Fold this protein.
Amino acid sequence: MNLRGRTVAAPRLLASALLLAALTLAAACAGDDGDEQEPLKIGLLLDTGEGVAEASMVRRQGFDLAIRHINDAGGVLGRPVTYVLADPTSDPDTAVEVARRLVEVEGVHALVGPSSSANSIPVAEQVARPAGIPMISPSATSPMLTTADDGDFFFRTALSDVAQGPVLARLTRERGFERVGVVYRDDAWGRGLYETFAAAWDGDITAVAVQPEAETYLPELRETGDAEALVVITFADEAETIVREALDAGLYDQFVFGDAARRLALVQVIGGDRLGGMYGTAGVARPNTESQAAWDAAYREAYGELPVTPYVRETYDAAIALALAAEAAGSLHGGAIRDHLRWVGAAPGEVVIAGADGVARALEVLREGGAVDYQGAAVSLDWDEHGDLVRGHIGIWRFTADERIEDLDAVAYGE
């Protein structure tokens, strides 16, 4: 493969490791005049902290697959795409430092990530906007990002929680609950999803914000009162503590989960006998599309089985969108790439799909001066004026007694 990825760390290290293993896959190619030409370089921001490392590894596989498909098709502007991998940690200040280093020291032309909304807001406002480079998060879903002061440099390949919150509320009602307690992570993502859930909920509700990575959540759980079920809007590692304490204290035995708790590890650690039959929501790919089928086949060929972790296809789509926009622009300038993102993700243009053949065709059309409408592995990349997707799907899933995750339905948004 003609690509190169490697890892950088922030100047200030936290307790969790900032460095991921260096990945050298190829070198930039030489131009016709013999001088080395600059390749499109993408900064990939993935948190490897406790509780999220496994999900980040799988999302990186989706990203690597995108880079492979781009470079196997000849790269962008006749040069292989390269990338630099960095860990922003869960701390927003560190995320800004890491992103700024990628831009100012490593010279990346675009960013994929961060994963979390809490990190994406300051990176968009303090790094992407002043530097004038586009960033696409595959999983930052907070509605607060819609109004971020990002200078139109922030996009996302996951639906805003304006879409997920009402589906989570409907699912909770359909499970037969009228009185619920809610624990939500006290950050941009947790507050955003809770607020959209609460706005759509028509029953009794008692909600408590919880601090990330606390040692115990029993005081907050007791504050939620006498409810029939607990709605958990936290990361998976926090959800593990919350669910275990709620069960052991006899406070709850019924749970409904937001997207961040969709992890096999959660049901495997707690046990299918206790979490089997508990439901949740998360963004999913549009079902039964040619693009999804092509991507699924490519991913299986590369890695053996499809991912259970959410937002892997969205990570692939983010990388593909940036490459197509740079090719369409004929430039690596951040503003030019940004200005072509909406152009390659919507009509008019030849419809192209995910997968090696689809990406190769998309690049071929653009090199010949044509236009494309990329139908992503996850969603059709029709972005509005805020960089939000105008359509997509929210999935309904459940844990099973034999400790699997079963997908049940995909609820359309914007269609």
In short: Residues 7-36 have pLDDT under 50 and may be disordered. The two ends are 38 Å apart (CA to CA). The first helix runs from residue 53 to 72.
